[in-house]
Amino acid sequence: MKRYLGSPARLLLGLTCALVMGASPGEGVAVAAVESSKGNLCRTFPQNATFPEDFPSENASSVGVCALARPEMKQPNPYSHIMSFQSSGASVVVGINSSLSLWLKAGEETHHLNDSLKAEAWNMVCVGLSVAHDTPTSTPEEKHPPAKAYQVWASLQGLPLDVPLGANITEWEEDVKVCVGTSSKRDASFTGFVTGVTLQVGKGELTPDNCSLLLEANQLTAPLNESWTPHGPVFALEEDLREPCNTPVLTLVLRETWDHDKALRWCRSLGGHFPTEEVTVGMMTLNCTSEEHLSWTSDASERKEGPTATCPVLLASGGVGRLPCLSELECSLCQVPAGLPYTLFGALTDFDRHYRLSARQDGFFFFQGETSNITRSAAGWTLQSRLHRRQLHLNGSVGVMGRRAWRSSSHAHAADTLTFTVCNAIQFSSDDGVCVLRSERCDGRVHAPDMSDEEDCGSRRLLGKDAHYDPGVRPFAGQKLTIYYMFEVMVVNKMETDKGLANVELNLHLRWEDDRLRFVDTKMGRNSFPCHQIWTPTFLMFAGYYIGPAVHPAANRTLCYLYWEEMPRQEHQLDDPLMGEPGTGRDGAGRAGRALRRGRYMTRANISQYNNFVASYPCLLRVSRYPFGKYMCNLTFGLFGDHENVDWKVIDPRQENGNPPILYYHGDHDLLDYKLEKITLYVHNNMMTLTLHLIGQPDYHLINNFLPSTLMFFICYSSFFFPIAGFNERIMVSLTSLLVLVALFSQATDSYVKTPYYKLIDVWYVSLIILCFLVVIANGVVNYLRVQRVKSHSSLMKKVVLAKKLNIATPLTRSPKPPRALTSPSHLSYPSTAPVTLPRLANPRKLTRYPFKPV
């Protein structure tokens, strides 16, 4: 019979150090229970109180640690630590793999042994170091003594093991740290029980003769104190150990016609197993059938899948054969260790809670308590007491183990849900009696064959509230409320400048505390519950940095949950058929109050809320440098109501670097008109602003606007290179280019965003149109000067100079070819900057055009 040592708060305080414990087998012995791979229990032994002054010496040359370990059959990790001890320069670890085979590790070297531990049985394991030989002693001048060679030794069930490992240690200069499980976060602890932990110092391989010596010197004591340091789901209990190293076995007869799997499940629910091929001798006397096959057995071979798979079977005539696993045998044999405790959970007060299994010589068995017993008849199982006449019945041929509806003979229609189980303190019973690790209960993965380990894990048993809880009032009203946040930008859709809208899909993670709520029955991982049952932050969203138009998100998905990386330890409660967690039945409130006083509720838990939404909002950009430039598109979140008393803190530590923090975004950065440079988050005035940093992408406009307009201007400008006399060609080209530029400008203004102010592209088009207009005007002036009459040589000179300046395509320094000889030898010259030879004027009145050809 085992019982807990007080409340969970006391269970986790540590273990008391005692060099000698006067506990003998059969009495309450302190046992450490490691519930999951993240639990460990460590204690440091002072060097001056552990080792002799001259250690190591001839009389004391070895140190080690011994314990009784009872591992669970199913280990959650393939490489698990059972116990270890370490000091300066020394570290020795013993552990098991998924098949419970032993391995040892000294320093960085690991050795795998061929020996294995027995599941759900006490195994005496020892490991240590012994001085192999001494190196030369050091001289007084040497600061550090020479290293000593140590040999690793180990034993299992009192028999030494072959361990070819060694270590070099300078001196035992520090204290010795002994751990049950592993103290490293990188490694995993085994799941199971440990007792009889002793630190041994002496000579040779310090292996005890029997496990009773370990129990007498057990360092785990009650009450628990601070000499041991627990971490994670590890606790202590008292257990009634009767012959832990040599437990007799009871052979039971299961008289149900079941196949291999059902019969094995029934046997396992009793805490037993099928007989092996080696121990079938002597079982023929329990002949329960007239058929050829007597019972299912077990072997170490792997079973194939499918309907044709075969399983080993014990023959009625002796020997072992094989039979399809789906075959049904009339009966089967089950071997159960004697002395296993069986517990009855449920809302009853007039029956015993704890029972022992008793078996008769013919294989029939029943469960005996102090005042009650559970027996079987042809009608089914019956729970009755010798103190009163009340009886509960379990009808049918179903097994008695597990969670069942027991009915009273006086109230046939009323049923009491009771759980009768052999599961230990770190296990949970499924409805059909299969024991799974309590850490696997409600973890989101099915472990029990009937899948009942994932039932009653949600909102029905998760949430408890104060009597006057109001979801509309935030926790810690009038005080600072810390809300942790984390943004994840999933998608940023394409953005068009003419629409000016940003479409963003966001994940917003929030976490806060609420001291008005109580949480129970939580599983490791995520525990979901409806958000409308509690207060949750309500946000006001608007576009802009301080103020702007309201934003109403669409496609909103919200999930509220608790997340526990390690399940908090909860105490067994015998009045709960679900083995420890308070329910919400008729006495839910009263039981909740009692649970709160006992500390079984988890208070001030981290409540998490996941929000996924799509927000479409205007960016309110001033695109003066369009299609170039950098811009910021803001979306601001503010808490609705009492936002001044909110302190925002980031969850993701990566978002703490930099000011403002940069959000990681792995989506598409090409947003059509813009390129997404980065996403930042500003926290200001109790508000949060999500900012998209955008860079204009002018590639499209360079091809469709800037290049064509530039070409048209060059075409317009090229009209200056046409002959001056070809006025029609010059004016048509320049005018056509001007008209095309105006058309391009009109087309461009219809395709991009319209603003009341000029943009860079507008300035570009207007500038080119003005330049082309000036070209047209210049061509007209040049032609006017060409056709204007001149009356004297001086006026002709002025016209020539002005025409050359307007006709900028004509080089000012080029000298024209001399004209043919004229009737008069006289010559006129242009100014020195543009020398031109003019013909002689025979009749100046007839000189009416420039340029002209001689007559």
From TrEMBL:
Entries under PROSITE patterns matching the protein: LDLRA_2
Domain Neurotransmitter-gated ion-channel ligand-binding: 468-542
Signal sequence annotation: 1-22
GO cellular component: membrane
CDD domains to which the protein is assigned, alphabetical: LDLa
Annotated region (Disordered), positions in chain: 812-837
Subcellular locations according to the entry: Membrane
Polar residues composition-biased segments: 823-835
Transmembrane segments: 706-724, 731-748, 763-785
Protein name as annotated: Neurotransmitter-gated ion-channel ligand-binding domain-containing protein
Organism: Scylla paramamosain
